[in-house]
Amino acid sequence: MTVLVFLDPAHPHGRLADPTQPSILATDQGVTRGDGIFESMLAVDGTPRKIHAHLDRLAISARTMDLQIPGANVWKSAIATALMAYSVSDSAATGEAGQCVVKLVVTRGPEGTNSPTAWVTVNPVSLALAAQRAKGLNVLLLERGYDSDIAARAPWLLMGAKTLSYAVNMAALRHAHSQGADDVIFTSGDELVLEGPTSSVLLAHISDDSGVPIKRLITPHLDTGILPGTTQGALFAAAKAAGWELGYGPVTPADLLDADAVWLISSLRLLAPVNTIDGTEIGTPEIRSALTAELSALLAQTL
To answer: What three-state secondary structure class fits 289?
Structure first.
């Protein structure tokens, strides 16, 4: 069951609605054009994780799209109302214990108006995401169809904004599944690693070219137009405090294949190890397992 709360000026703490009944007008531009933005965050024991990072990124996406959205305190009140309602629902007994998914959505609203539609939903965490953390992923590299400098050349493409226009991302995942893979890492036309359809990409090295032990984490740089990862950022902060070296791209497919471990990381799946890329094993099972355990423990400190 989904808990649904609309942000409504007449209801300062949000307006609970029945998610099984029609709620959005057929003329809403989020429906007709995918014209809107969203954020998804993990809540544990009724507390949303990294809420300020998600609200900040929502505000950045809104500015990129010239979209007026409610303020942070309005969102916090609606989120609290939704989590309270969820805590007493049957849904709270499903999924991973104590965890749920909080999703924030804003559309440009119905055609011909200047009235955005905004709401919060709460759902159980998918059991499939928990399985990905435990078992890892087999991933395909797919070209996204543009060069890595497109964000600077064409800001109207909204690169780096978390918009509702996810049809291409979902098509990429369906293609991966049809090929027997679990997920995708996108690459640019000039052969740089970008991100996953719903995740950031992270790789690790535990020795340099001469075999000297190191602890280095690397993620693609943001000027390629990828979405800044809130969970990747939280992990980097914790890893730096624990003595890891940090780096930001450029990252090539060869860099991924040469890494000791690669992960897809996001707010909901957390840290999912990549077992293979295009059929080539990444590192060894022992190294992947050990590094995933170490970094997952660091990430848990931030949640």
So the answer is: helix
Type of residue at 125? V
The first and second tokens of residue 27, run together, are 């003329």
Distance CA 62, CA 64 (A): 5
Distances (CA, A) of 144 to 18, 103, 222: 38, 26, 15
Residue 285, Cβ neighbours under 10 Å: how many? 11
Contact between 31 and 24 under an 8 Å Cβ cutoff? The reply is yes
The answer to whether 79 and 48 are in contact (CB under 8 A) is yes
Q: Can you tell me the distance from the alpha carbon of 124 to that of 43, in angstroms, rounded to the nearest whole number?
A: 10
Looking at the chain, the domain(s) classified CATH 3.30.470.10 span: 3-125
Q: Strand, helix or coil at 179?
A: coil
Taking the C-alpha atoms of residue 44 and residue 32, their distance in angstroms, rounded to an integer, is: 34
| Residue ranges of the chain that CATH labels 3.20.10.10 | 131-300
Cα–Cα distance for residue pair 150/157, rounded to 1 Å:
8
Length of the chain: 303
3-class DSSP assignment, residue 102? strand
Tokens of 227: 């979405």
State the Cα–Cα distance between residues 2 and 103, nearest whole angstrom.
11
Span 207-253, pLDDT tens digits = 877 788 899 999 999 989 899 999 999 999 999 999 999 999 899 99
Q: How far apart are CA 27 and CA 109, in angstroms?
A: 8
- What CATH number labels 3-125? 3.30.470.10
pLDDT digits (tens, 9 = 90+) for 25-39: 999 999 999 999 999
Q: Name the class of domain 131-300.
A: alpha beta
> What type of residue is 281?
E
pTM of the model: 0.91
